[in-house]
Amino acid sequence: MTTLIEELYSLKNDEKAMTLSRFFKTAEGEYGYGDKFLGITVPDQREIVKKHYKDISLEEIENLLHNEFHEVRLSSLLLLTYRMKESNVQNQEKIVKLYLRNTKYINNWDLVDSSAPYILGYYLYENNIDKTIIYDLACSQDLWEQRISIVSTHYFIKKDIFDETINISKILLDSKEDLIHKAVGWMLREVGKRDYDILYNFLIDHYKEMPRTMLRYAIEHCSKEVREMFLKS
Q1: Is the pTM of this model over 0.85?
Q2: Cα–Cα distance, 6 to 214 (Å, whole number)
Q3: First-to-last CA distance in the chain?
Q4: What is the pLDDT of residues 28-75, one digit of tens each?
Q5: Which domains are seen in the chain, by residue range?
Q6: What does the buried/exposed string (b/e) look like for 188-199 if buried means 16 or more CB atoms within 10 Å of the residue's CB?
Q7: What kind and span of H or E run contains 116?
Q8: What is the Cα–Cα distance from 197 to 195, expressed in whole angstroms?
C-alpha cells in the first residue's frame, strides 16, 4: 500500500487541485464541501491502481477509502472494481459489504459513478442476488446513497434488464437534489437507447411530475419532435 500512496502523492499538482476543487463544488454550502484534492488525473490513477490491485488487502483498501484526499478515495474504489471481477462469490460479498458500510466516504458523483455499477450492480446481477438493497438505498435520506441506488442499475441496463431502473426512478421522482435529477435522467436515457418504448411509456406517465433537469437528460437522444412535445406540454 505504501508504494501506491507514494506514487499517488508523487503526482500531486497544486494548480490542478485548485481546478478540481472548483469543479467538484467544494465551497461551503456546495455538495462537495470540505473535500480535498491532490490534482491527479483519473487515467494516472488507473495506471497506478492496475499495478497494485492484486497486492493490497481489503483492509488496506478500506483504509484508503477513509483518506482525506478525493483521488485516494477514488483509487480505493477503482481497486475494488478491479478486484470484483477476479473474486469468487464469497470475496465479492466481502467487497460489497465493505462498499455499503462506507457509503459516507463515497461522497461525490464521480466516486459513485466509477464504482456503483461495477461493484454493487455487478454483484447483484452476476450472482442473481435479491435487489432489495438498492431500493433501501433509494429510500435513504442521503444524496450519495440515492445516487448509488440508481447508478448501480446501469449494469442491469447493459444486460437489457430495466425494471430496477424504472422502479427506482419512480421512487426518486420527488427528489430535490439536482445530482439525483441528472442521474435518474441519465439512466432513463440509457434505457431508451436499448428499448425506446419503455422510456417513452415512462415519460408519458411521469413527464409532468419530473424535474426539468431529469426530463431534459432523459429525452436527450429522442427526436426533436418528441423533445418538443414533452418540453412544451
Answers
A1: yes
A2: 41
A3: 56
A4: 999 999 999 999 999 999 999 999 988 899 999 999 999 999 999 999
A5: 1-129 (1.25.10.90), 161-233 (no CATH)
A6: bbbbbeeeeebb
A7: helix 116-116
A8: 6
